[in-house]
Amino acid sequence: MTPGRMFRSFAILLLSFVTVAPLMAEPFIIAHRGASGERPEQTLAAYERAIDQGADYIEPDLVLTRDGVLVARHENEISGTTDVADHPEFAARRTTKTIDGQSITGWFTEDFTLAELRTLRARERLAELRPANSRFNDLYPIPTFEEILKLVRAKEAETGRRIGLYPETKHPSYFAGIGLPHQAPLLALLSRYGYQTEADPVFIQSFEVGNLKALRAASRLRLIQLVEGEGGPADAPGTTYADMMTTQGLKQIADYADGIGPATAMVLAPEGPTGLVGRAHDAGLQVHVWTLRMENSFLPTAFQRPDDPQGRGDFAGYVRAVAGTGVDALFSDFPKQARQALNPAP
């Protein structure tokens, strides 16, 4: 073979690899608080719908009750996600607290026993953007983490496939400071249902650092350091997420976590990929990005469709663009549509 023909053959082979590589590295889908684009978030209905739509993992945000039970809520302040304000028996529970440096007024899970919380019903948090979800208001109770585990077990038996769990510890240092740490009840429940090693389909995530380091010391389950484009961990004053995303910072994260969970804008800027995915992979870290939603208000300008009657943009195009950065997983409120974007019908 002549040198010229050899070069041309190599070029064709290289082009073939570049063409098929994204298909080989398709990210898995994490249902963000369930199929929360179609049902009120953090309800068993949202989680079951996500599983039925083929989500690889479902994600509950975990907070605690006064009696130490893990429940799924977006925040420990629940006025925006339940009907608590309509319960006169709990009017006196409304209060103002400082959570991670912010003053917040409302009703908080840690001021209720589980039995009291069970008298409340879930409501759509983004009612203006998702009015169709409001028809499910007041139908579903706040689920415990154990109920979510039982749902997963039941759906695994029904479908014959493993369904991953992706719990987030919300405000762990705050809860530890009031005598309600996440770690012990979280690991105990996961162990009881058979999740104990890195081979099990579980990722535990947190925006804080100390919580993850404590979990690493106590468990072999995989851990994800969540990060944002601004600010820093609530339990590490003086540390910024920007510092943590440097080459040295990523190496330090790799000492206690298996991956990072950045906002999508941190991996895909208007001008293109930022390079964060490559740096994280070089440090031995997976990259799981959050959160891909269909509504224009959540999409970058290039993917918005202002004339869409449902207020939605080019979600499929956005999913494919984010996947093209090489991320390992993506969070979405719309797991079915995210999967369809990655595997369009012929």
Biggest sheet details:
8 strands, parallel
> At CATH's second level, what is the architecture?
Alpha-Beta Barrel
- What shape does the CA trace take? globular
The low-confidence runs, each spanning 5 or more residues with pLDDT under 50, are: 1-24
Counted beta strands = 15
CATH-defined topology: TIM Barrel
Give the strand order of the largest sheet, numbering strands 1, 2, ... along the chain. Answer: 7-2-1-15-14-11-10-9
Which structural class should the secondary elements be placed in? alpha/beta
Count of helical stretches: 12
* Count of domains: 1
Q: C-alpha Rg, in Å?
A: 21 Å
CATH class: Alpha Beta
Helix content: 25-40%
Report how far the terminal alpha carbons are from each other.
Answer: 39 Å
Protein name: glycerophosphodiester phosphodiesterase
GO molecular function: glycerophosphodiester phosphodiesterase activity
Organism: Sphingobium chungbukense
EC number: 3.1.4.46
Break the fold down into its secondary structure elements and pairings.
Layout lengths: L2 H22 L3 E5 L11 H9 L4 E3 L1 E4 L5 E3 L22 E5 L2 E5 L7 H4 L27 H15 L4 E2 L2 E2 L2 H6 L5 H10 L10 E4 L3 H9 L3 E5 L14 H4 L2 H7 L5 E3 L6 E2 L2 E2 L2 H7 L3 E7 L22 H9 L5 E4 L2 H8 L4
Parallel strand pairs: 1-2, 1-15, 2-7, 3-8, 9-10, 10-11, 11-14, 14-15
Antiparallel strand pairs: 3-4, 5-6, 12-13
Helix pairs in contact: 2-4, 11-12
Q: What do you see in this structure?
A:
This protein is globular. The strands form four sheets. An eight-stranded parallel beta sheet has the order 7-2-1-15-14-11-10-9. Strands 4-3-8 form a three-stranded mixed beta sheet, with no helix packed on it. Helix 11 (315-323) crosses helix 12 (335-342). The protein has a single domain (25-76, 130-342), classed as TIM Barrel, CATH 3.20.20.190. The protein is built from twelve helices and 15 strands. Helix 11 (315-323) links the parallel strand 14 and strand 15 (329-332). It has helices spanning 3-24, 44-52, 114-117, 145-159, 172-177, 183-192, 210-218, 241-244, 247-253, 276-282, 315-323, 335-342; strands at 28-32, 57-59, 61-64, 70-72, 95-99, 102-106, 164-165, 168-169, 203-206, 222-226, 259-261, 268-269, 272-273, 286-292, 329-332. It starts with a helix and ends with a helix. By secondary structure, it is of the alpha/beta class. The model is unreliable at 1-24 (pLDDT under 50). It catalyses: a sn-glycero-3-phosphodiester + H2O = an alcohol + sn-glycerol 3-phosphate + H(+). Residues 27-342 form the GP-PDE domain. Keywords: Glycerol metabolism, Hydrolase, Signal. This is glycerophosphodiester phosphodiesterase.
